[in-house]
Amino acid sequence: MRWSRESCAACEGTDRDPGRYSEALNQTMKIYTRTGDDGTTGLFGGERVHKHDARVEAYGTVDELNSAIGLVRSAGIDRVIDGPLEAIQNELFVIGAEIACVPGKEGSLGLALIDESAAARLEGWIDEAEQELPPLKVFILPAGTPASAGLHVARTVARRAERALLAAHEKSPVRQELLVYLNRLSDLLFVLARRANHLAGVPDVPWKARSDSRRG
Fold first, then answer.
1. What residues does 50 pair with on adjacent strands?
2. Helices (DSSP H) in the chain: which residue ranges?
3. Which of 44, 39, 32, 40 is nearest to 3 (CA)?
4. What are 51-96's pLDDT values in tens digits?
5. pLDDT, tens digit, for every residue of 116-132?
6. In this model, does residue 213 exceed pLDDT 60?
7. In whole numbers, what is the pLDDT of the chain averaged over residues?
8. How far is 85 from 78, CA to CA, in rounded Å?
9. Is the pLDDT of residue 1 over 50?
């Protein structure tokens, strides 16, 4: 689900009563509201911005990242990979909600926001996965099993989400914990892509430099 104030009919009036945010999340959400037909969308907190606003681009890309991870999980991957991905999807939902807030209103969401422990947990999963993998000594291609290729796609979307969030940060501040999380997440997705191949008995696909036909 994408995050915007009008995606939830119950969110009407939450800009006047911030305590209603968490209550609104548990109510029926309306799919269309027509309020965005003019090319604008509402942030939590009441402010309306253009749909091409940097903050909207950022939380939209986080939503795309979450969808890419969901597609990988739908293929029925090994539990040692699926477990972390499930937790990550839930955390990305919270990140999207925070980015969709007017700066300074994040605490009114009534959600447990991402903190330093979340990035530390990603680092733990990276370390755990790398213990089972052969040392990486060459550049590799985003290839191998469908699960690995899908995780590489998610990795590239994570990098784009990080860039989008940095662009939004230049206009209005976002918490450093979010930037760190997305940076670490792309690293984890790279390692999990290698692990998906490893678990399937498929070796990394090395990059081969283009040979110069003029030689020899």
1. 40
2. 20-25, 54-73, 79-99, 116-130, 146-171, 176-199
3. 44
4. 888 899 999 999 999 999 999 999 899 999 999 999 999 999 999 9
5. 999 999 999 999 999 99
6. no
7. 85
8. 11
9. no
Predicted confidence at residue 40, as pLDDT, reads: 67
Q: How far from chain centre, in Å, is Cα 92?
A: 5
CA contacts within 13 A on the Cβ side of 145: 20
Residue 206, Cβ density class (10 Å: 0-12 exposed, 13-18 middle, ≥19 buried): exposed
Q: How confident is the model at residue 102 (pLDDT cuts 50, 70, 90)?
A: confident
Q: Which of 95, 108, 67, 66 is nearest to 168 (CA)?
A: 95
d(CA 132, CA 39): 49
| Rounded distance between C-alpha atoms, residue 177 and residue 91, angstroms | 12
As a whole number, mean pLDDT of residues 149-176 equals 96
Residue 62 gets the label, from left (phi > 0), alpha (psi -120 to 50) or beta, of alpha
Per CATH, which fold does 47-120+137-199 belong to? Hypothetical Protein Ta1238; Chain: A; (1.20.1200)
Residue 48 forms beta bridges with which residues?
42
Reference 78, options 146, 143, 155; nearest CA is 146
- Count of residues in the chain: 216
Task: Decide: helix, strand or coil at residue 14.
Answer: coil
Q: Is the separation of the CB atoms in 50 and 40 below 8 Å?
A: yes
